[in-house]
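Propose amino acids for all 193 sites.
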């Protein structure tokens, strides 16, 4: 196809449609779930200083960014219907909470287990550390298996740095990319908030 015809086709179809028409998988058609994906930041807000008006309580111990709340509630309810009782043990973490988490892990010589304060996805209200009724969430538990099979349907992603083969493996840590997120090649999926 000549470049003039390509440009005309781009104007007629739009970029995403053109990519699909040429047989290339369009980024917009890809699910926003990938181990290297990251939640998008909240424009105009500061990590760890999210106003309560932007948060919603999912349980007495778990608040998340309000746009993530509905999907988290649905995820928890559907897991329960499937016989898996997941709990949000650590959700939104204000700046002071991030400092405390970092100090705790560093005191154990494992600073890699907590983000530098002000950089945690918990500070955007877009991360949840899950547990299960009566046990910690670990690789191989029913809760982890359920999340691995289903969390993507609700916009939740298990980041690659938390995978079983990583130094700082965290089977419990999942992040919400349901409003977009930054996709691994550096493009964004969906609207940025």
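Proposal:
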């Amino acid at each position: 196809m000549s470049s003039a015809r390509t440009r005309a086709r781009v104007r007629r179809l739009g970029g995403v449609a053109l990519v699909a028409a040429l047989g290339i998988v369009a980024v917009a058609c890809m699910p926003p779930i990938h181990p290297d994906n990251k939640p998008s930041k909240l424009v105009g807000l500061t990590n760890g200083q999210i106003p309560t008006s932007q948060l919603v309580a999912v349980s007495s111990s778990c608040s998340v960014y309000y746009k993530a709340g509905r999907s988290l509630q649905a995820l928890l309810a559907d897991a329960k219907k499937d016989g898996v009782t997941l709990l949000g043990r650590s959700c939104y973490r204000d700046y002071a909470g991030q400092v405390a988490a970092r100090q705790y892990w560093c005191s154990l010589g494992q600073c890699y287990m907590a983000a530098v304060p002000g950089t945690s996805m918990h500070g955007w209200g877009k991360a949840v550390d899950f547990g299960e009724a009566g046990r910690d969430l670990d690789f191989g538990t029913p809760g982890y298996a359920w999340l691995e099979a289903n969390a993507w349907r609700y916009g939740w992603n298990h980041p690659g740095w938390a995978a079983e083969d990583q130094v700082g493996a965290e089977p419990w840590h999942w992040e919400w990319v349901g409003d977009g997120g930054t996709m691994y090649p550096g493009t964004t999926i969906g609207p940025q908030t």
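The CA atoms of residues 95 and 124 lie 10 Å apart. The two ends are 37 Å apart (CA to CA).
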